[in-house]
Amino acid sequence: MQEVKKIFHDYLAQQGLKSTRQREIILDEFLRFGSHPSTEDLYLKLRKKHPQIGYATVHRTLKLLAECGLAEGHNFGDGQTRYESCVDEKHHDHLVCTDCGAILEFYDPRIEKLQDEVARDHGFTIKNHRLELYGLCSKCSQKK
């Protein structure tokens, strides 16, 4: 955790920005969130204990976390950017429920192997990739 905070503080200093207590609180809560929070999700959770932290501060801090490589923004089709921690994260893909918005992470080596084979067959070098599958989670499927 200290290394993560150092990365963030060093980035802020490089950008000529201050390391504030509010940014520290937002970083801590983001890392504890354990899912894919939007700005609003994180703000609503924070305001219970820290009503002095505004929505704009949460939004700007999440963008800073993404800029310095500690978070990654995703758009899962709900009109919001959702952020995911890049700290200690291994590669994974996402299953996104189009009814309830649940986001499930998964890793399947067969998919990774197939992607490599397709790229190789086309003389293509993969630098990065993102796989998102949209449909209904098991709970929403049972309701239908």
Overall pLDDT metric: 91
Strand order of the largest sheet: 4-3-5
Q: Report the count of strand segments.
A: 5
Radius of gyration: 18 Å
The major pleated sheet works out as: 3 strands, mixed
Coarse structural class: alpha+beta
- Percentage of residues assigned to helices: 40-55%
Q: Please give the alpha-carbon distance between the first and last residues.
A: 43 Å
Number of helices: 6
Unreliable stretches, pLDDT < 50, 5 or more residues? Answer: none
Question: SSE order, as H and E?
Answer: HHHHEEEEHEH
Shape: flat
Strand content: 15-25%
Structure, explained:
The protein has about 140 residues and is of the alpha+beta class. It contains 6 helices and 5 strands, in the order H-H-H-H-E-E-E-E-H-E-H. It has helices at about 1-15, 20-35, 40-50, 55-65, 110-120, 140-144; strands spanning about 70-75, 80-85, 95, 105, 130-135. The strands form 2 sheets. It has a 3-stranded mixed sheet with strand order 4-3-5, with no helix packed on it. Strands 1-2 form a two-stranded antiparallel sheet. A hairpin with a 5-residue loop joins strand 1 and strand 2 (about 80-85). The longest helix is centred in the N-terminal third of the chain and has 13 residues, at about 1-15. It is flat and about 50 Å long.
Short description:
The protein contains 6 helices and 5 strands; from the N terminus they run ααααββββαβα. With 144 residues, it is an alpha+beta fold.
What order do the helices and strands come in, and which of them pair?
Layout: H1 2-14, H2 21-33, H3 39-49, H4 55-67, E1 71-75, E2 81-85, E3 93-97, E4 103-106, H5 109-121, E5 132-135, H6 138-143
Parallel strand pairs: 3-5
Antiparallel strand pairs: 1-2, 3-4
